[in-house]
Amino acid sequence: MAAGTMAFTSSTTQHSCRSFCNELSGLRLQPSILPAVHRRRSSMKCRASAAAVAEEAAVDKQAPAPAPANKAVAAESKGFDHWNDTYYPKGVDTAAVNKDWYIIDAEGQTLGRLAVVVAHFVRGKHLPSFHPACDMGSFVVVINAEKVVVTGNKFNDKLYKRHTTGRPGSMKVERFKDLQARIPERIIEKAVKGMLTRGRLGNKLFHHMKVYKGPDHPHTAQKPVDITSLISGRTAGKVYAKATPNIDETKVAE
Q: In this predicted structure, what is the pLDDT of residue 12?
């Protein structure tokens, strides 16, 4: 029986799945070889189905679907895409040449309230197209940095700490009045930088602020708009409700 089984197995390897099943229906097989027969039958069925799938793929590859001649016309024929209508700024929206310029006179202004307005415009939150991950802000020029004021005892008690080498033991401490006499621009720069976002975007936005000692600045050609009036005591917080079109554009720095 074993020799007959081997001869039968070798002779049926060349038959198709259908002929193999027909031959099995007319034979009486021993129970010991039934698992092998079932495995053989399953493998041949899998190969037949794989061949059918490959044949369909070859037909699809030979006759690909024609591409639309005009993508815009094809998109209009499908209607409005409600799943992709979120606004995202383009490169032209964040280009430096398309940014607005503003100027603030720091004479007699409180440091914190001044920094809030500067950071607000440098970040770009005054624009309806603001995006937190993009550089949508404007350029802000601050003049008379040495005339900014602080409240309470901060003039004598406020400290500025820095590390000269970045290692322990090299920290330098300087009071507000001493730093204002030495480098007044650094006081406003530190206050605004603490209000900006961290990372590469914050480092880029920080350079959109131009702080100068005295009333002169080299940005007259950009015609910055004066927004010092937005810093007005307790009403300074309302700057978030004031958009750029509401600013009086006649107040342009000469």
A: 44
